[in-house]
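Task: sequence design from structure.
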């Protein structure tokens, strides 16, 4: 009789432990996100908030949208792709889960310099950008691949300034690397997103490019076709939540309704 009671107690204990562990096991769900480098500060904050609310984890890989798109095309195990360009999202259209793509954010293109005491300039076709560079270089993301570089080259071309500075552009793998060159005073000027400039204390914005000088800056997001994460859809929805919106806007992004 005592033995039967003891065995019953053991079973009950295991059941209790199993029930207690169930939420912990559910909390172990993970989503792998490939995201444009310009999203780093805001998306890190958003992912931390989501994790605190749900117990789940977002593992985020940041790089230029072009590099991330190519990795997805080659079968990299991403659950969600957030691009800084509709073109690079279009390039992986066949690798996306149907019906999940949405436009999340907008941004602004700016001209930056090192430090915080530079005089502002008007960015138009009369800007002597070459003269401002002197013997230095203009830091930009890859102008034929990375969205920030593509937008920047388009803007300079539209304003008739590209030919004067083309030979003096220091191209980087992503926009945050271009930002770092100016922050370290290794390049006197750079073209980045307004949100990047706001994230770095050692640079200042001296001018804003006219919106009509380049294609609209749009950040689309989608779940990949190969995603097996049970929380991918939940995280994608969270990126458009009120909690995320407050962070996006605090970091300088425009939230697309």
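Answer:
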């Amino acid at each position: 009789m005592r033995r039967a009671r003891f065995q019953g107690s053991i079973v009950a204990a295991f059941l209790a432990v199993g029930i207690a562990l169930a939420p912990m096991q559910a909390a172990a769900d993970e989503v792998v996100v490939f995201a444009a480098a310009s999203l780093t500060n805001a998306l890190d904050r958003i992912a931390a908030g989501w994790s605190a609310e749900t117990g789940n984890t977002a593992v985020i890989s940041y790089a230029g949208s072009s590099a991330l798109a190519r990795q997805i095309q080659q079968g990299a195990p991403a659950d969600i792709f957030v691009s800084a360009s509709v073109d690079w999202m279009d390039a992986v259209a066949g690798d996306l889960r149907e019906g999940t793509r949405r436009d999340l954010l907008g941004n602004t293109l700016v001209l930056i310099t090192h430090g915080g005491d530079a005089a502002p300039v008007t960015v138009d076709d009369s800007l002597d950008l070459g003269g401002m560079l002197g013997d230095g270089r203009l830091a930009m993301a890859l102008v034929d691949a990375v969205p920030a570089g593509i937008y920047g080259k388009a803007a300079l071309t539209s304003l008739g300034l590209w030919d004067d500075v083309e030979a003096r552009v220091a191209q980087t793998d992503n926009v945050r690397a271009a930002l770092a060159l100016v922050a370290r005073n290794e390049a006197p000027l750079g073209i980045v997103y307004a949100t990047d400039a706001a994230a770095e204390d050692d640079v200042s914005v001296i001018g804003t490019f006219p919106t009509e000088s380049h294609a609209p800056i749009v950040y689309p997001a989608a779940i990949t076709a190969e995603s097996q994460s049970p929380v991918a859809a939940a995280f994608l929805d969270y990126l458009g939540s009120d909690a995320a919106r407050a962070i996006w806007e605090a970091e300088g992004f425009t939230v697309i309704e």
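DSSP finds eleven helices and eleven strands in the chain.
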